[in-house]
Amino acid sequence: MAEQTLDLRDLPKAQAYTQLKAQVRAVLDGVDDDVCAMATMSCLLHHAFGHLWTGFYRVVVPGQLLRVGPYQGTLGCLEIRFGKGVCGTAASTDTTQVVQDVHAFPGHITCDARSASEIVVPVHGKNHELIAVLDIDSEHEGAFDEVDREGLESLMRWFSGER
Ligand code: SME
Question: Any idea what the Cα angle at residue 57 is, between residues 67 and 104, rounded to 5°?
Answer without folding.
Answer: 105
